[in-house]
Amino acid sequence: DAGVTQSPTHLIKTRGQQVTLRCSPKSGHDTVSWYQQALGQGPQFIFQYYEEEERQRGNFPDRFSGHQFPNYSSELNVNALLLGDSALYLCASSSLGLNEQFFGPGTRLTVL
Amino acid sequence: AQSVTQLGSHVSVSEGALVLLRCNYSSSVPPYLFWYVQYPNQGLQLLLKYTSAATLVKGINGFEAEFKKSETSFHLTKPSAHMSDAAEYFCAVSKDQGGSEKLVFGKGTKLTVNP
Question: pLDDT tens digits, residue range A62-84?
């Protein structure tokens, strides 16, 4: 079992650009959640996808959007990047209500 | 609303000493509580979780935590620290024991283990 995988591992962008991060859930999982972890902080919930729909959303602006595909993989898109968007972006997968969330290794985004 | 406060952003112990990492929670509904560990440049790994079945929860790597409702606490302990325990530890609260609800994390406690 490959577990939760994320790509790319690292990414450098400049202010105003757009970025797409990708996540493949653990085998058998149908729910994907995204978290942002700024340096020295705990992860903060961005949103959760289930059955290709956004099921819950945290306190993040509309610049943050996502998508879930029929194979349960997911993308996180961030438009009009700001310096403050620099963070580790974590993806977590689960089966709705059945077990805990399993986290991937994250994508480190640096905005210059 | 739910929240978690971790007391002490940095904790330093000697190898073989007791590890105690503190976590207090706030929740308007019965909480489900979690401890995660994060090693450098890695994602989060679940150490243990409280799901109301038992107040003393045993996890991986010799860690355990006790849920105390009267103190709204869920402190993490390990009797004897090992060098490999050096990492950052996060306490989290949720409305659900599974993957249905978001996790609300504390700011983390970085554990240093001295030889």
Answer: 999 999 999 999 999 999 999 99
